[in-house]
């Protein structure tokens, strides 16, 4: 897996009015996915809640079951745990029509939250471009689907690509292909652990920065854990995007409901991410205005150890160091030694430059 030269580094990607990447606010994507269970009205409620929770984006999934899964496709274990016996039939119950998505897109615009969706094939990409979306999300499972990557790249839109369950080589190949397709300047990668839910000890948040440094593009985290605190850890670790599943009710029958955040948890997740974002700061070092009062109170100045008479030569024995720190600093002692006092200097008082010749 080759690293990227400095000339190919992409610091930010624009999605609508937002810049995503270095030194920008974290883009928080509330993943509604298929947690509408095939109901457009429930999808609209998910939009409302994502907006109220403070998310920047609400994301859905656009597919047709007959195009996505064969009749022989078995459901994953976590889907079987929710009662699914056929992947195609499960997906068929979760489909929404183009008219449904048009309503959702319009509702997002009215609420002031960005609409995003994951397509699973070129036809789904066409459905999304008809909705005038401002970015496209590629799921981890489709990282090696060159037809889908080519179709998505051909839209000219920013691409957010998850990397769950992919080898380093597969990620490198996909990034190279997307660059060949002309999408390199508008690519964001998401570290992801493809487990539902993913154990916290396997989150491997340091991979976020590895993706950024290796491929020279903004990197974030598609979070499949059940933690809310991890939002802060990921932001502190450099994630410019956070994607998290949420639902209105974790007891609903859909395949992703149980591993999604409930309403109050999404609010907390967003709040923790914003707190971490604030605490992350700029990375600049040096004294800040906030620290000036403590700096003055806690640092030391040069003080007369005893009364110094006018004309006396300043020697080390005549000096000591004491708080506060708003006089001559300890690093000025050598410059004072050997000078003569201009006036009497009382014991236990700070020495000023005007006190000496």
Molecular structure report:
The protein is α/β, with parallel strands linked by helices and 357 residues long. It has helices at residues 40-53, 65-68, 77-80, 87-92, 98-111, 122-129, 146-153, 168-180, 206-215, 230-236, 263-280, 292-298, 333-336; strands spanning 12-15, 18-21, 27-33, 57-62, 114-119, 136-138, 159-162, 187-192, 219-223, 241-245, 301-304, 319-322. The protein has an eight-stranded parallel β-sheet. The chain has a two-stranded antiparallel ribbon with strand order 1-2. Strands 11-12 form a two-stranded antiparallel sheet. Strand 8, helix 9 (206-215) and strand 9 form a beta-alpha-beta unit.
Question: Can you give me a brief rundown of this structure?
Answer:
The protein has helices spanning 40-53, 65-68, 77-80, 87-92, 98-111, 122-129, 146-153, 168-180, 206-215, 230-236, 263-280, 292-298, 333-336, and strands at 12-15, 18-21, 27-33, 57-62, 114-119, 136-138, 159-162, 187-192, 219-223, 241-245, 301-304, 319-322.
Shape: elongated
The percent range for helix content is 25-40%
Biggest β-sheet description: 8 strands, parallel
Q: Which runs of at least 5 residues are low in confidence (pLDDT < 50)?
A: none
SSE ordering? EEEHEHHHHEHEHEHEHEHEHHEEH
Strand order in space, largest sheet:
5-4-3-10-9-8-7-6
Counting helices, strands and paired strands, the structural category is alpha/beta
Beta-strand segment tally: 12
Strand content: 15-25%
Q: What gyration radius follows from the Cα positions, in whole Å?
A: 29 Å
- The chain-level mean pLDDT equals 94
**Count of helical regions:** 13
């Amino acid at each position: 897996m080759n690293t990227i030269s400095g000339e190919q580094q992409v610091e930010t990607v624009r999605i609508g009015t937002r810049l995503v990447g270095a030194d920008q606010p974290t883009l928080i994507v509330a993943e509604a996915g298929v947690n509408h269970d095939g109901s457009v009205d429930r999808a609209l409620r998910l939009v409302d809640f994502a907006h109220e929770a403070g998310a920047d984006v609400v994301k859905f999934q656009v597919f047709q079951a007959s195009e996505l899964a064969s009749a022989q496709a078995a459901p994953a274990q976590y889907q079987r745990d929710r009662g699914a016996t056929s992947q195609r039939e499960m997906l068929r119950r979760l489909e929404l029509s183009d008219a449904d998505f048009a309503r959702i897109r319009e509702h997002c615009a009215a609420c002031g939250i960005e609409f995003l969706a994951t397509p699973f094939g070129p036809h789904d990409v066409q459905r999304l471009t008809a909705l005038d979306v401002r970015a496209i999300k590629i799921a981890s499972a489709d990282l090696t689907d060159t037809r889908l990557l080519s179709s998505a790249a051909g839209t000219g839109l920013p691409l957010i690509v998850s990397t769950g369950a992919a080898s380093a080589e597969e990620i490198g190949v996909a990034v190279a292909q997307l660059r060949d397709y002309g999408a390199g300047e508008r690519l964001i990668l998401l570290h992801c652990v493809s487990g539902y839910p993913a154990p916290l000890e396997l989150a491997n948040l340091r991979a976020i920065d590895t993706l950024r440094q290796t491929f020279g593009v903004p990197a974030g985290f598609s979070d499949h854990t059940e933690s809310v605190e991890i939002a802060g850890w990921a932001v502190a670790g450099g994630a410019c995007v956070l994607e998290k599943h949420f639902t209105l009710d974790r007891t609903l029958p859909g395949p992703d409901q149980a591993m999604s955040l409930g309403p109050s948890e999404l609010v907390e997740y967003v709040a923790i991410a914003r707190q971490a974002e604030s605490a992350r700061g700029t990375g600049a070092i040096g004294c800040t205005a906030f620290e000036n009062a403590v700096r003055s109170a806690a640092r030391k100045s040069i003080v007369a150890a005893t009364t110094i008479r006018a004309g006396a030569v300043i020697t080390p024995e005549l000096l000591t160091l004491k708080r506060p720190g708003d006089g001559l600093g300890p690093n000025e002692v050598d410059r004072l030694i050997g000078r003569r006092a201009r006036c009497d200097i009382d014991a236990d008082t700070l020495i000023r430059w005007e006190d000496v010749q």
